[in-house]
Amino acid sequence: MRAEAMVSELGAISAEPDRLVRLFLTPEHRRAADRVADWMCKAGLAVSEDALGTVRGRLEGQGKRRLLIGSHIDSVIDAGKYDGVFGVIAGILAAEHCRDKRLPFGIDVLAFGDEEGSRFPVTLSSSSACAGVFKPEMLAQEDRNGVTLADAIKAYGKSPADVPAAAYRLDQAAAYVEVHIEQGPVLEARNLPLGVVTAINGQTYLNAEFLGEAGHAGTVPMRLRRDALAGAAEAILLGETLARESNGAAVATVGRVAVAPGAANVIPGNAVAVFDIRSGDEPARATLVEALKSGLRAIAARRHLGLTVTSTREVATTPCDPHIQDQFADAIRALGTEPLRFGSGAGHDGQAMAKLCPIGMLFVRCRGGISHNPMEYASPRDLGLAVAALIGFIERFEPGRLSG
Ligand SMILES: [Zn+2]
Question: In angstroms, what is the span from residue 290 Cα to ligand 1's centroid?
């Protein structure tokens, strides 16, 4: 299967011999971008590259409007080989299939370089540039070695002054669509190869800092203690309970806790828990966040702890265009399989592209729902079905009939 071979070829381009690490604007990014550009050329696409290193493969159509098909070629550290890469490859293979079809619209296949945010403390900078929403302050952000994004762009042979020119005009971009492995277990559990994404879920980060009093673990009686970590532990369980009670509408996770002073024989005086709350249903997320905040206050009051709650990230839900969803669903049905519709719990370039035009996404089943892990796997058969569904979508696509 061609897609599988191409995925493996890009998967071999890494900064490290024993695991996949391909960060934004690095020599590995360059090598992967060159490989993608070569494939695009061979598929009959006209290749260019913008200031953020996004590789663009252009297929002319009859109208001036363009269907944008993209995903990313950067990776997390110790990544799987399908995440992002397969969406770019699916776009190239589908565009190649359509090259002699005289479509009523053009196609641009986009290979973004900054979706994971693994190098700089920013993410989606390359798709933001295409969407015309790149924030100039992103240029001052530094990687772990103190290299700014602006300097990395220059080292990559580009100029930060050209970033505005990367933006599509509103009347050019008809829609943006992306094929991506699901990165979750929903399709596998339903025994279905493909799914239609209804929305990219919104997200709230809440930092809850409990302030107690550090003390001797042997001498302070239990009733006199103000244990910050015990308060945080109760808060974490409250988050889990609230999310369970939402009946699938929202998820809540605490993946990081910081405890001070952090000694086995000292009562914790300070504990910070970071809540990651996501939902495709804005009212459900708001309700959960409010219930959690009031629950945190109650826990702190009962335990005589100080409490500071700060929201460090607030990302609204990005809905997928209903008409694009229907066209993907029709294309999947035409392949003899049921199109399951559900929300994406993970973030994607579509969140930035939605600021430009209507978006849609197609999900592909991956084994065990595992992603951001070298164990990531999607079968060659499912990859083939995804490319066929994307082609079916392109054949059904009507730029005039979108809500945006
Ligand atoms: Zn991805």
Answer: 30
